[in-house]
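Q: For a teaching session next week I want to show students how multiple molecules come together into a single three-dimensional assembly. I've collected the sequence lines for a complex. Could you give me the predicted structure tokens for the whole thing so I can convert them for display?
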Amino acid sequence: MMKYLYYPGCSLKGTGKAYEESLLAVFRALDVELREIEDWNCCGATAYMSVEESKSYALASRNLAIAERENLDVVAPCSACYLVLNKTQKSLQEHPDIRRHVTQALKAAGLDYKGTARVRHPLDVLINDVGLEEIARRIKSPLQGRKFAPYYGCQIVRPYASFDDQYNPETMDKIIKAAGAECVPYPLKTHCCGGSLTGTLPEIGLRLAYIIIKEAKKRGAEAIVTLCPLCQFNLDGYQGQIAGKYERVDLPVLYFTQVLGLAMGLPAGELGLQRGIISAAAVLAGR
Amino acid sequence: MALEQKIKYEAERDRDFAQWVVTQTGGENLRHCIQCGICSATCPLALYMDYTPRRLINLAREGFKKEVLSSFTIWLCASCYACRVDCPKKIQVTDIMYVLKRRAIRDGVYPRRFPIPVLAREFGRMVFTWGRVNETLLVIDLFLRTNWFRFLSMTGLGLNLMRTGRMSFFPDSIRRRLELRKVLAALESKDEFRDWAGPVAQLLDEEVEP
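A: Of course. Below is the structure for the complete assembly, covering every listed component.
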């Protein structure tokens, strides 16, 4: 049985609960063990990383130090966590100064990090460890005829494209196709959803989110499929305000793990499908 | 109407500033810029910035410190890394934005009530206090500090989040908070602006172990 450590991050315990529920359900059904890292702390995300340098690396490193004890790959589903943990790893390797400071700080709390943890994305694990053939074998009720817009957002392929192409990523497309659905051509795959700007400067954030949703609808998608809790929150949660400011779009925004779970025949309730603010009922019709 | 000098003289530049940026992590390639403008073209926020990324890079390397540090540009950057990936001269534009933000905080010239630095500060405070972030509490805090009127317009979203079970009003805490605080406190002197994240010593004295 394949085993990994699981780094949920704050969003998957909060607004992104459906991502955690569907991820755990799908991995369980695939016989892949995900064990939550003991007493993990917030990665710091963009907000902290951009204003604190060595502290943000130390914050992220505490998680890596705890993970390293178990000698298993770490799976980080949230794009911000994935980027911050990988960026920390890279900075520790490339900048001896940062490494020295962080090591000393960890030591002050009795922690030690040798630098061996490996942080991966669930898509990477599904495609490269589990494999598409194995996934295809597990598909019980393919989503025939469904059309989705695969939306990756920024931080999963930028700046480090470790498991997919930076300009035209395709790993999630492959999962959607394995689930029996179609991917509409979607040139905004890696455009920015606005990140935290929907909260801080809504006049800007809402516009960025609107562009993503409108284009998906125009391309004939019945839903947007994403892999980031913040993207999902922006695109799903703000459609009410977008309707007030621009136009009503009404497009459900699903996680790729929910799509895969449905095709594997897992019950909608286990996949957190009831947690979408824009109802996924149309996508579920006939199931 | 406030009159403002529109033309800049060479004598007003601060060459040490550009040199300082180059010595920071991520700032190394600043001087390689060929002003091609790919960064501005690819930036989803460029149309809202007071200086586009291309202009900001140029101002920074020419030493126009005041313009750069007091700009909104550095705070508007959403960290999508499009500029960094597309830059033909491998300039780490996003990281340069971070370098400039930190300096603006240290020099006390960031826009105090602008919601973005407020969010960054409160985020840091919450992480230091609890070890994790509760998005609901963070957003409420942000609105109360910047624009509580807008808070009212968020009731629709709030109700929707409650209906779908995605909201919680209790802070999410790690168990070994003291351990994390010791890690961060050890770096107090390494990061250059001490008063930003809050009173560290005071929190360290608290009884935090379960």
